[in-house]
Amino acid sequence: MQPTAHSMQILKKSADHTNKLNNVYKPVIFDLKKPDHQKELSDLLEKKTHIQVFDYIESQVKEFIKCSNPSVIYSPEQLDQITKAQFNEQNPDEYGVWVYYPWLEKLVHILDEKEYAVVRTNRNKHKITAEEQELLSRKKIGVMGLSVGQSVSMSLAMERGFGELRIADFDELDLSNLNRIRSGVHNLKIKKTVVVAREIAEIDPFLNIVCFHEGITEENLDQFLTEGGTLDLLIDECDSFDVKISAREKAKQLGIPVLMEGSDRCTIDIERFDLEPERPLLHGFVKGVNMTEFKNLKTLDERLPYIAPVTGIETLSPRMKASAVEIMTSISTWPQLASAVNYGGGVTSDLSRRILLDQLHVSGRFFLDMDELICDTPKQVQESVVVETDKIDIAAYLKANALNQDGSGTDIPLNLLENLINVANQAPSGGNNQPWKWHYENKTLHLFLNKEVSGAYLDPDYISSYLSLGAAIENLLLQAAVLELDVQWKFTPEFLPDHVALFRFAGPYRASQEEKLLAAQIENRHTNRKAGTPDVPQTHDLDQLGKAIEEIPGAAIHWITDPEKMKQLGLIAGEADLFRMFIPQAHQDFITKEMRWTVEETESTGDGIGIHSLDLSNNNQIGLRLMKDFKAIQLLKQIEGGSIFKRLPLSQFQQSSAIGLLTLPEISSLNFLKGGIASEKLWLKATASGYQVHPVNVPLIFFYKSDFEKENQLSPQEKIKISKIHQDFKEIFGITDNIAEIFLFRLFKAQPSPVRTIRKPFIKTLSIGTAKTEY
Question: Domain THIF-type NAD/FAD binding fold: where (predicted)?
Fold first, then answer.
């Protein structure tokens, strides 16, 4: 049915009237024992004839009588008689008060405040005693933020846990708020302060509610905390991190305790500035963070270093971590659930009461995580058997395999050996695992594969380790050349994977200009993960880089400079990064074996990749920390999320000068060792030419695992997807099957990374002599 012009005009007038009431939250209380109140109410009813009237005063009086005499059991007749006496021949209309709610246009007859409070709090006893209730009625509480704060405020009001409640929020109620804020659609676009104040007034019109509709600002913070009497408790549920800090600073000065509840895991923060005047803000989590700068920061990436210490990024629930990763991709903001918000509101109200009644004195951060407190008994999972890596008795191994009988060459002094090994150990390695073990004996230097640090999920058949060992060999040979040492050396493929190569030294040797050039770059060579400047590389530069590997038989370098193809490769790299996160063993290796999460951990282990060395934005660094939790990863996989991890490699590839792929004619352990030599030559040459290099070998390892490994934890669907991606990859580079894809990398111009990966002291990687040595 189409509305008529007349009906639309009526609706418009009604809407105009409603809009005028949008900021009204105080009910009007009439005491008809007062003549002026009688007249005011009479005028109101005459003017507004459609007001709904609710008069159940008699039933309330009966409740009051029973509450006042709990030990007496009244018959209905007795209760009626006592109720009549309670009115004392008074006009029932004049008993108690009448409360008019303008926004509802309802008039309600209720007991006066004293009797109303008796009945309203009757069911509190003796969880809250009469003396405690009276003490609470003199307390002043401030609540900043009215999403979680709405539940807190309502719980406090229902218990009558305050005498005055100051509520602050600048926002209006939106439809998306209704997943956690108990309200109706008729309240949309009304200020949250008004919505909450009205709800409280509808429960208890005598409670004193003071609204700060503009939220907390620099101008009104003092007023919020002190006007009309200093707050006895500040409850922080606001979203503004600068306000959180500035409010705490002022609360600390005034000796006001602060209570905060985060709806995720019911995280509770209690700061008893009234008992601990020197207590650091937020338990010291924000020490050294200048929050005065926060309000001037524009981007999330700029703000994250300030937000992370407050929220406790790594203590979030798995689902919140996964959701945080998805913000601004599949969701627009932090999620909150009504169950958690209401639970948190009840917990906060309980803690508030105990603090105000001097029954709780602790400070700190606490978790009431329902997923941990009430959960199914974990299924018994058979513990994985840790297979001890066979330790090699080097002396016995060399003797048994006749690898130490020649004795030719020249004995070199320890300081020279140290120099060579230190330089060799500057080679790159997957996850900076440094998979080399050197042994010097009988004028011969032996290179072993250290199986204790190799063989991770992304090191199938040790191919990644072989690349690293090849690069270490190249470094050693270059350094020997500039030290004028002639090196006679060979791979020992018949003893792989244990023994890799041996070296004997003589002299003198005259280094070529190319060897000097490359050796000079060993210290400068490093992994650079910056985005870079997408300059088109000179053909001459790419040709020169290709010449660096000419002496490696069969080695070839394939270049991609077409922007569309680089984009496709970026998408492939992103898919591989997600695969890595979604596979349990690969994720575990990444979190525990590869990454180092603090500078102290990095320095302690002497290996791995420090998160501080990754050239990551604050946003990406926080995202990486969130991914330590495999439960969060599982949820991302379930919702087909994690696209943010594709975004970074895509951006990096699109801002590269070229993408290079080093190949050899066939797949073999020896070719991966040779590929390591070739990749190091190429990398050093690129460094000398002013380019940065970022190896991106994760896709190649997945291609290898899918093609050659049976036990690779890949589902049939994942294998099909990787096979399709691999085919696209080969088409982009124009290579055929059975080619060994050795080294994929980005080439670009950028400033060097300020922080480099650490290396173990050479003495931990070198053993000397014929004494029994094991590794």
Answer: 127-283
Q: Dihedrals φ, ψ of 637, to 5°?
A: -65, -40
Confidence band of 171 (pLDDT split at 50, 70, 90): very high
First to last CA, the chain: 87
Q: Which CATH number is correct for 128-377, 3.40.1190.20, 3.40.50.720, 3.40.50.1000, 1.20.58.1000?
A: 3.40.50.720
Helix (H, G, I), strand (E, B) or coil at 591: helix
pLDDT digits (tens, 9 = 90+) for 549-595: 999 999 999 999 999 999 999 999 999 999 999 999 999 999 999 99
> Taking the alpha carbons of 371, 375, 379, 383 in that order, is the dihedral positive or negative?
positive
Within a 10 A sphere around the Cβ of 12, how many other Cβ atoms?
10
pLDDT tens track for 283-303 = 998 887 776 777 777 777 777
User: Alpha helices, DSSP H only, in 390-437?
Assistant: 394-400, 414-424
Superfamily of domain covering 394-522+760-768: NADH Oxidase (3.40.109.10)
**pLDDT surpasses 50 at 182:** yes
What is the phi/psi pair of residue 106, to 5°? -125, 145
Q: Would the CATH topology of 128-377 be identical to that of 394-522+760-768?
A: no
User: How far is it, in rounded angstroms, from Cα 159 to Cα 137?
Assistant: 10
Sheet order of strands, 140-144 included: 208-212, 164-168, 140-144, 233-236, 258-262, 267-271, 364-367
Q: What is the pLDDT of residue 19?
A: 60
Structure tokens at 436: 């080399």
Strands 692-695 and 740-748: antiparallel
Q: Which amino acid belongs to residue 454?
A: S
Q: Domain 539-748, what architecture?
A: 3-Layer(aba) Sandwich (3.40)
Full 3-state SS string of 91-119: CHHHCCEEEEECCCCEEEEECCHHHHHHH
Q: Which of 476, 494, 402 is nearest to 442 (CA)?
A: 402
The domain segmentation of the chain, as residue ranges, is 21-120, 128-377, 394-522+760-768, 539-748
Tell me how far CA of residue 237 lies from CA of 43, 311, 341, 469, in angstroms: 42, 12, 11, 55
| C-beta atoms surrounding 44 within 10 Å | 16
Q: Across the chain, how many H-helices and E-strands are there?
A: 28, 22
Q: Are 698 and 464 in contact (CB under 8 A)?
A: no
Q: Which residues pair with 141 in a beta bridge?
A: 165, 233
Give the helix ranges, DSSP H, for 160-209.
192-203
**Token pair of 192 as six digits:** 């949250």
Tell me the pTM. Answer: 0.84
| Banded pLDDT at 540 (limits 50, 70, 90) | confident
User: Interior CA angle at 368 toward 363 and 369, to 5°?
Assistant: 140
Q: Could you write out the three-class secondary structure of 552-573?
A: CCCCEEEEECCHHHHHHHHHHH
Distance CA 672, CA 465 (A): 9
DSSP SS3 for 316:
coil
Q: What is the pLDDT of residue 386?
A: 42
Helical H segments across 630-692, by residue range: 630-638, 644-654, 669-688
Arithmetic mean of pLDDT, 614-636: 89
In 10 A of CB 714, how many CB atoms? 18
Q: How deeply is 443 buried, as exposed, middle or buried, from its count of CB atoms within 10 A (0-12, 13-18, 19+)?
A: middle
Q: What is the CA radius of gyration of the chain?
A: 37
Q: How far apart are CA 436 and CA 442, in angstroms?
A: 20
